[in-house]
């Protein structure tokens, strides 16, 4: 602990910074003083300086103020004369913990937790208040200690807090629930102990009780439809109506927390929100809260994104309520926004663009690319991730992809660079964005390839993590969609037959599926592209045949059959090679996978299989009749005859094509 | 996954008990992203006969929202030195997202009926469409898909190229062979310019399919 002699803090000091530094250093010695008055004054001084001042909090923290205050707290006994010290030290510690994660960590590291708990049973109400408020600050942070709800004595203690007449104490009880209850088992234990009845009473209490109650109710009801139904049913919906009214409260934090609660209800049991007016009010309240400069505004953005996630009807309502422009205007204000708010705003934009083309076009028309590019370079990984997700969803607009909106250097380069980002969530998100952006439709020249993106994706397709392999292959598949020969050659030269065969035989079916879809695109286009599958002595085709014979998942089989379809649209040689895969010599009599696929429940698989047969028996080719005979003898043509009334129109039409082709060979 | 429905030879009726809940159309293999079509557009007027060669490529299709888009390339256009490429967006008549009535682009209901009735495959549906807009029709099991295509912008030439994209096409797609016919509608252009396209197989002996997956 830094110390200094008292004479150094005299008026002879020359600069204001050195004198404030001296005062700071001096306060430590006074905190350690045995004179309670001196100690008290020092505590008050620290508390008054740090309240609402993050810079001061950091500065005092670095000087070791927290252990010093912790000692003051633990050394004070419970006698009356120490009460002021207890109050001020608790208040100072609470202030350090308020909205300052490093402060919370330091407070917990200093071991004050049991001492603060002790204060809750102090006869002096002011001491109890200070202890409760301080503990509440700790429980509101991400560093909140675990609370074992499954232990009976912990539950008794918790309920004693909830039952207290002291609003800070009951509020603390609610805060503990709000922030420490994490699993559905804990939720259930709390519900069975009757926590709902205790919490709803707090809705009629003071501001701080209401806020604590809203947060804790949201935690306890989340994803629990039975609990939601119980809550809504309480006193014929009175409490539910109260919460809805609180969305119009004059305090922003109350409005935010009531919205958060309603979003939890909506996501758990949407049937309570059939009324369009309620949905719209919720959306508008949250949009308005986005403009709040404080923590409520920071949190509102994330809550809004949770509300509209996966819900097209709400996204439409929000779009019509001008959400996109409102959010973009906030982003464009130029002031430094908190990372949490930025993350929430970009995630909200991402959700708005997720399903509706109008939203995407509207968003992209607002000159937002610079904003998004800046966010890709933000120091917070959460912001970078959110910006990538926003890019990904905006790039679902084929119209804008086709217009080349995303292919400029200033977009492509930072995105490709993020493939090397240290954060795995950023990497995953950027692969998703690039997956869409590489569908550039417009030009054969690709900045993405120039910046090394192709090589990077090929590397990622060999990752230990199957999700990464799958995502990288999906991006490669999209990159090879309608690609010209030059691009295909460039890609193939890096992967080769062995590489492809390995991917097709990957242990994970989704990886196999993407590898086959990629191959399908490779062999589409001009007829010479089919030659790729012949490289390496047919290694690739053999791998496909092997996988198709292994009773594969439908999605993988669909892609495999489309590879065979595409190859079978080539020359006689190509068609014969496909026949060899359908009827391998070394396995006569084994159940033919073509027959199995034709009987699949998955219509797309039936369709893909029929297309292979259409191409094999296309009358314009010389060997068509012989292949037709072989297919007939294998029971495939008869199977198709049984399927003339297939439930799927597309399958039915393709079968009629095959049978029409059969008739041209003189079949009845 | 499509629901198994009972086969019927005539254009089926949707059950009258649930008129409000329509589903999007099922996928049709030849109307998919990456599919290419080639043919002509007849641009004749009273002065002379003329036809442009046209290539169309589908770039995206979203059946859930009845939307598709792609490019159209017109060759041997007299006013242009190069082929003229436009980007278009389409509305699929599925009874859920869009009906046979355009409701915009200066096309009246009479214009709509005049154009749709030029497609032979529309005649079995005509009576129903005239009486209640085709509300009861089960287009999901009909082997033709009706659309409107509207060009949005020129891809490779300026708007001063002397060509117009003010109108739109009434389009009929045949699910069985992928052939497309269409009629261009623009109150300020020659009426009923006919578009006729067939699938393109790039020198292959059969059909080939590519695909992408948006994340």
UniProtKB/TrEMBL annotation, chain A:
Compositionally biased tracts (Low complexity): 1-20
Keyword annotations from UniProtKB, A to Z: Cytoplasm, Nucleus, Repeat
Location in or out of the cell: Cytoplasm; Nucleus
GO cellular component annotations of the record: cytoplasm; nucleus
Annotated spans, Disordered: 1-26
SUPFAM superfamilies attached to this UniProt entry: ARM repeat
Location, primary (coarse class): cytoplasm
Record's protein name: Armadillo repeat-containing protein 8
Organism whose genome encodes this protein: Cardamine amara subsp. amara
TrEMBL record, chain B:
Pfam families: Vac_ImportDeg (PF09783)
Positions of region (Disordered): 1-44
InterPro entries: GID4/10-like (IPR018618)
Residue ranges of coiled coil: none
Biased composition (Polar residues): 7-16
Family: Belongs to the GID4/VID24 family.
Name listed for the protein in its UniProt record: Glucose-induced degradation protein 4 homolog
Annotated source species: Cardamine amara subsp. amara
């Amino acid at each position: 602990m830094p110390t200094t002699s008292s004479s150094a803090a005299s008026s002879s000091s020359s600069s204001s910074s050195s004198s404030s530094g001296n005062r700071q250093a001096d306060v430590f010695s006074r905190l350690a003083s045995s004179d309670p008055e001196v100690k008290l004054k020092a505590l008050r001084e620290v508390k008054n300086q740090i309240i609402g001042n993050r810079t001061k909090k950091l500065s005092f923290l670095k000087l070791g103020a927290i252990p010093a205050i912790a000692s003051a707290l633990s050394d004070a006994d419970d006698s009356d004369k120490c009460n002021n010290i207890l109050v001020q030290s608790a208040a100072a510690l609470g202030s350090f913990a308020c909205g300052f994660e490093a402060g919370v960590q330091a407070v917990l590291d200093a071991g004050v937790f049991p001492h603060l708990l002790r204060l809750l049973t102090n006869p002096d109400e002011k001491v109890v208040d200070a202890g409760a408020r301080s503990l509440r600050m700790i429980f509101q942070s991400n560093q909140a200690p675990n609370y074992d709800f499954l232990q009976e004595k912990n539950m008794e203690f918790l309920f004693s807090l909830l039952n207290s007449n002291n609003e800070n104490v009951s509020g603390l009880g609610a805060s503990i629930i709000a922030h420490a209850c994490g699993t559905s088992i804990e939720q259930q234990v709390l519900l069975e102990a009757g926590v709902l009845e205790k919490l709803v009473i707090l809705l009629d209490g003071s501001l701080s009780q209401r806020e604590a109650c809203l947060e804790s109710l949201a935690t306890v009801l989340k994803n629990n439809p039975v609990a939601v139904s119980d809550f809504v049913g309480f006193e014929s919906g009175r409490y539910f109506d109260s919460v809805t009214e609180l969305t119009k409260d004059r305090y922003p934090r109350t409005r935010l927390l009531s919205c958060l609660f309603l979003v939890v209800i909506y996501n758990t049991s949407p049937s309570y929100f059939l009324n369009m007016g309620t949905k719209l009010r919720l959306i508008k309240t949250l949009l308005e809260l986005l403009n709040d400069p404080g923590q409520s505004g920071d949190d509102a953005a994330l809550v809004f994104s949770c509300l509209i996630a996966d819900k097209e009807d709400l996204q439409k309502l929000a779009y019509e309520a001008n959400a996109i422009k409102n959010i973009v205007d906030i982003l464009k204000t130029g002031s430094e926004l908190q990372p949490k708010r930025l993350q929430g705003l970009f995630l909200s934009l991402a959700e708005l663009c997720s399903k509706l083309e109008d939203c995407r076009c509207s968003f992209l028309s607002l000159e937002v690319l610079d904003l998004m590019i800046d966010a890709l370079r933000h120091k917070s990984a959460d912001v970078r991730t959110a910006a990538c997700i926003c890019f990904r969803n905006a790039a679902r607009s084929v119209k804008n992809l086709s217009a080349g909106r995303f292919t400029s250097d200033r977009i492509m380069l930072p995105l490709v660079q993020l493939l090397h980002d240290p954060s795995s969530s950023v990497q995953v998100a950027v692969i998703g964005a690039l997956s869409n952006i590489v569908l550039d439709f417009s030009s054969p020249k690709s900045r993405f390839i120039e910046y090394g993106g192709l090589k990077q994706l090929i590397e990622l397709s060999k990752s230990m993590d199957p999700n990464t392999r799958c995502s990288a292959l999906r991006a490669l598949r999209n990159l090879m969609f309608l690609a010209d020969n030059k691009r295909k050659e460039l890609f193939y030269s890096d992967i080769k037959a062995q590489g492809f065969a390995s991917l097709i035989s990957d242990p994970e079916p989704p990886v196999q599926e993407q590898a086959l879809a990629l191959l399908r695109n490779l062999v589409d286009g001009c007829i010479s592209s089919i030659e790729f599958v012949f490289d390496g002595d047919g290694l690739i085709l053999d791998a496909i045949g092997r996988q198709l014979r292994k009773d594969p998942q439908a999605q993988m089989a669909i892609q495999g059959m489309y590879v065979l379809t595409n190859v079978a649209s080539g020359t006689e040689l190509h068609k014969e090679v496909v026949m060899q895969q359908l009827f391998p010599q070394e396995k006569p009599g084994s159940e033919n996978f073509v027959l199995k696929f034709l009987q699949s429940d998955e219509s797309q698989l039936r369709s893909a299989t029929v297309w292979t047969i259409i191409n094999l028996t296309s009358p314009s080719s010389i060997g068509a009749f012989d292949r037709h005979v072989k297919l007939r003898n294998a029971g495939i043509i008869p199977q198709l005859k049984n399927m003339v009334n297939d439930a799927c129109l597309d399958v039915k039409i393709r079968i009629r094509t095959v049978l029409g082709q059969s008739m041209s060979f003189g079949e009845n | 996954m499509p629901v198994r429905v009972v086969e019927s030879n005539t254009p089926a009726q949707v059950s009258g008990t649930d008129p409000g809940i329509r589903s999007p159309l099922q996928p049709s293999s030849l109307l998919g992203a990456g599919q290419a079509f080639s043919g002509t557009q007849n641009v004749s007027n009273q002065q002379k006969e003329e036809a442009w060669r046209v290539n169309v490529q589908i770039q995206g299709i979203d059946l859930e929202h009845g939307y598709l888009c792609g490019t159209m390339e017109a060759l041997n256009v007299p006013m242009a030195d190069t082929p003229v490429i436009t980007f278009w967006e389409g509305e699929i008549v599925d009874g859920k997202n869009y009906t046979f009535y355009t409701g915009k682009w200066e096309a009246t209901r009479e214009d709509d009926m005049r154009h749709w009735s030029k497609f032979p495959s529309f005649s079995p549906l005509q009576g129903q469409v005239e009486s209640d807009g085709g509300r009861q029709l089960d287009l999901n099991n009909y082997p033709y898909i009706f659309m409107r295509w509207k060009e949005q912008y020129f891809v490779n030439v300026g708007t001063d190229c002397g060509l117009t994209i003010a109108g739109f096409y009434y389009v009929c797609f045949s699910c069985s062979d992928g052939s497309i016919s269409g009629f261009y509608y623009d109150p300020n252009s020659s009426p009923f310019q006919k578009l006729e396209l067939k699938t393109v197989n790039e020198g292959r002996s059969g059909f080939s399919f590519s695909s992408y997956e948006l994340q």
